[in-house]
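Sequence in, structure out.
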Amino acid sequence: MRELPPDQRRDDPFYNHFPELKSLLKDRVSGRRSGELKRISEDPRLMSAWDTDMRYAPAREISSAWIELWRAQAKALVQTMEAG
């Protein structure tokens, strides 16, 4: 996958958050890694419990186990997107 031009960033998976990113990946994946990205994006465990509102939550409300899982999932997803 390649980034879209700046005027199309709203529809670019590289510049979106969950859960919108999962939808964009399902709808827009193409190329040699498309099957793998589609499989990843359809996994209900991917970024489960994630919400952008958490960035304002007190740290004690966010499980460190969730953070480590999200970090690993995000890293794997970005690597797969960039490899395609």
